[in-house]
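Sequence only, no structure available. Ideas?
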Amino acid sequence: MKITVIITVLLSAVSLAFAQDCFSSRQQRYTYEQGLASTVENYRITSCLKKELAKKDYQSFSQAVSSLRKSNNLKGVIHLLIDVFVNSKDPQTVFTAATALISAPEESIAFQKDFINELTSPVAPDYKKTLAAVVLIAAEEANGSYTAFLEPALNAKDKALEAYACGAYSLLVPGTSEKYLNPIIRLYAFDKTFAQKAFASTGLSQSVLNARLVEDYYSQEQALRLAAIEWIGDSGNKKLLVKLLSPQVSKTKEGPTLSAAANALLRNYAAISVDLRKALKKDPASESATVAVMTYSFMGSRSYEVITPLLSKGSDNEISNALRIITSITGILDEDPSYYPNPGLEKQRLTKLIAPVAQAGKNAQSAEVKLYAQSAAKELYRFLNGR
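Reply:
I predicted one. Tokens follow.
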């Protein structure tokens, strides 16, 4: 029985930090990063994040960079990122600054001299020279001679550095062989636009990419799996999306993969809703069912129109999975009320499930369903009564 496992996985998925002082809630951060904040609020938060860039700890710096990138507010901080890139001695910090600069080539190229100085510096480490070259290549201010700065990283132990080097190499040398396809897919996790440009330069067909994305979804390497899932989710290709519900996901049984698959499916709910519904028929212990449960859990009360009828008319598997969804939504609200746009409404709608959950437990013929019903009822009672 895995009654609590799904909660643990879900809570790890929703507890991503918004710890900067610039945000009071997850919802506020989401609004800002989606470009939905008011002009005044956007200015306030951006100004606050600028201060975060100056902090010495890497977590504050990386979180600020991430929010500024997602909200398209890098333009006013490029000079700060250049300063970090040039002067920091910490490879992780330098890499994060470089990824932001690469994602904003039009603004970064104004500092072309700084990048050239890094390339010609006798003391600059190779990884920094590689990243400086990638920035210039992304800005289309480089020629074939720049491959010399990329070659040391084409098979780097650091897979993130390798991804950028291979992506840039593909742009400089069109028609690059398929051997760089996996690094380009890894690159997608860092910079979707840059990765797509790199793939286009390889001359490979979309069918080759699709086949590799499925193959990488089953990879033993977590970073490659997660990048493949993200690309599949953004593709909107139903044939690929269905693979995220494949039983073969059991090869990679761990939380981040299941959570990423659920988020990808949620973004494509209209196209995949029938398949998600079918997955609830499967054994609750299966990864297929777990991904579906997580997807519906991330939906919150929007999933009730699917799961409420199952509590009274579903098969044992369907009832069990519906109860898991209720338990998981309760756990998410308890851990982070701001995860859903309207937590008050979520709580209100949960109260309407008390009777159906109790009835499902009363009518249950199997011990497994009874246990899931008891778990859901216990979580509902605890949450709704503040215990």
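The radius of gyration is 23 Å.
Hope that gets you unstuck.
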